[in-house]
Amino acid sequence: MPLTMIKTVEWTPEGVRMIDQRLLPTEEKYLMFRSCEEVADAIKQMIVRGAPAIGVSAAMGLALGLQQAVATTVIDLQDDFNYMCDVMAATRPTAVNLFWAIERMREAFRRAAAETQDVEEIKQRLVDEAQAIFKEDIEANRALGRFGGELLPDGATVLTHCNAGALATAGDYGTALGVIRGARDAGKRIAVIADETRPFLQGARLTAWELHKDEIPVTLITDNMAGHVMKQGKVDAVVVGADRIAANGDTANKIGTYMVAVLAKQHDIPFYVAAPISTIDLSIPDGAHIPIEERDTREVTHIREQRLAPEGIEVHNPAFDVTPNELVAAIITDKGVARAPYTSSLRRLFEQTGRAEEQTA
Ligand code: MRU
Fold this sequence. Notes:
The chain is built from 12 helices and 16 strands.
């Protein structure tokens, strides 16, 4: 069991409560968001970030917005709901969990509206759905942690990039860090090397913080040290999370992940991707179809208020890159471990959920 259950995002009677991830690790501050628009803004501002956490927060934001709607008929409530879904969908483009969660909430609305005309009853069902999404995310990460934990040998040192931990999910285990926690909870001794992950520093600020809190040995390096530590034989496996996995296994994750995967190949180190089924997008054939978010150039030119680069220069700030499937040793999901060829292995995992047809439709 983790020593501290990190509460990334929570449903409360007053609104959606989140830890402000922009301030970590120096400040542990919780903020309350009291409307759908406020939750959408928190996703945009990266107060909450990480693909599954974005999905869970979006679902809660929609449930919150609906609760506050003044509509008295199902038709008017549906109009309000459609508007809220559009607001939520316009926050961040890459993590498919956002669109997955919106679609699940839409489906829950359709089901409820087919069964009742009671507006209050529909609102309550949507709150229940958001809470179910939250609970399922924690369970999914526990399950993938168990599957992935089996792949790591006792005494292994694992390199990870970005933060795919409790802070990137509903809380508790995380995905890539869920695999590490799964191995630890199975009695294995695991150490972690965390890439700092420029420019937003999710590795230095968040992964180092949560592993340290959880008493899992962690060593922080800058991104450009990864090749060197691999060459020195200090890395036994790489485990990263994902923002969107295409049908052929091509994987979008935090910028710099591709570089780590190429290095792992060069040094014959297994490169694993850990993600719940909700991160897999069977509707796109390959990674070329994944939209890559471009973020504010200030993230590159500044650290907090401190300017690092000269004024007026050209800056490029893609937030994600795509790792081609041939560099991925396995994709660890809550339904089991998929290996190449991914087009068939991922589809088989989906068939267990009964959602394969719906995804490719
Ligand atoms: O920009 P971020 O911080 O939302 O990006 C997060 C990542 O790239 C994570 O590795 C990914 O979402 C997986 S989180 C379990």
